[in-house]
Known about the structure:
Largest sheet: 7 strands, antiparallel
Number of helices: 13
Oligomer: single chain
Bound molecules: flavin-adenine dinucleotide
CATH architecture of the largest domain: 3-Layer(bba) Sandwich
Strand content: 15-25%
Distance between the termini: 24 Å
Amino acid sequence: MEEQRNDGAGQGILAVIGGGPAGLLAAGRAAELGARVVLFDKNPEAGVKLLISGKGRCNYTNAEPDIQQFIAAYGKDGRFLYSALNTFGPDHIQAFFEARGVPSVVERGKRVFPESRSSSDIRDALVRYAQDGGVQFRFGEEVRDLSIAEETGRIRRIVLADSGEPVGAVILATGGAAYPRTGSTGDGYRFAKKLGHTIVEPRPSIAPIRIRESGIFAAQGLDLKNVSITAWIDGKKRDERFGDLSITHFGLSGPIAMDFSRDLLDLMKEGPLTLTIDFKPALSYEMLDARFQREFLKRGREEIKSVLRALLPEPMVGVMLSACRIYPPTPAAEITKEERQSLCSHLKAYPVTPEGLLGLNWAIVTSGGVSLKEVEPKTMRSRLVPNLFFAGEILDIDGPTGGFNLQICWSTGWVAGEQAAHLLSEE
Ligand SMILES: Cc1cc2nc3c(=O)[nH]c(=O)nc-3n(C[C@H](O)[C@H](O)[C@H](O)COP(=O)(O)OP(=O)(O)OC[C@H]3O[C@@H](n4cnc5c(N)ncnc54)[C@H](O)[C@@H]3O)c2cc1C
């Protein structure tokens, strides 16, 4: 251990490591309760990931009113959040931002956004809250290590690039390992592991889906509105999502692909998984077929590719004709019944085989992290190191899209800040 000595200088200082949503709220709450708080972030400013969340609009929580339903969204580990959500749940964070001049608005799926649809309003309100409490910001400073006093098992010092600083308590809010270019490079896992914590292997949770067939890649860059994807195993329907989808050079992205991705790896373990995309969910197969018959009759002399352009986004025309093996200049009147039916089938159920998710570099959220068994759910305090607390994505819990992941940060951040402040005031 680098530092065994306690000269008393850091007693009472709470070091919050990470200036994302969890760290900012934790720091602000602790300071509000009178703690002396120093917040470190290796980025030059606060909340870099928060700023890009929800495509810069920041879907910061979910308005699901039933707490049991809310907890169920996190799966079996949701129980861990029960107490923290009761202490500081979705209503509390909405009221928190309202009180700081950031009213909210609820969109489809009970997704809550700032009315301005601007994540910087959320980030700035958090920064002001922390500043008002007197939090000292140390941006651009990377914490390299934490050192423990062997006689007490407590963290005594944080190690920076050229120096070290004594501390009374630490909140680790360093985020997960997803989207590491925002600063969340998994440092907190390394610190926690060194202090004896178990790290459940970090994996991508919400991430774009890689698919095997390259035919659809020709439509890369296309954003589709109101389509649906259905998951099948051995001919049985296992899942279905409706909404917006993006086609990329490796597969599928956009809201419904991301939403579904959280369940994809588990489903892939159960058997050969196929996804079908319905590009026209508002029309039945029969309605589509009747429409094609009408159009092909009316515009029989025109090439099939131009007739389809009236019905489909341009990049999909080539994809569909190639999937149905139809020569694009064929006059519409010469399209056979089989070819027309093949077009209908592909538009209603275009099959693709998922191969997995894009890695952590492109994931929105990490699954895995600091094992929940070693963290007290009522306080977010480590069961192993008495003056260590955790908040946010570093914990081994994650939720679906819809604001559930930022809510983890608010609930755990608030509780960790409050409890760390209590610990320091008692000492
Ligand atoms: C593109 C994108 C969109 C998203 N959209 C949404 C959304 O709309 N709704 C939603 O609920 N969730 C969304 N998420 C997820 C959500 O943003 C994260 O779960 C959340 O930011 C995690 O917060 P955190 O405070 O735990 O960690 P982070 O926000 O990752 O912050 C951790 C901070 O710790 C700092 N740090 C790490 N190591 C060190 C060190 N050694 N020393 C000093 N500082 C360090 C990092 O620089 C970073 O700033 C999105 C994520 C991405 C990538």
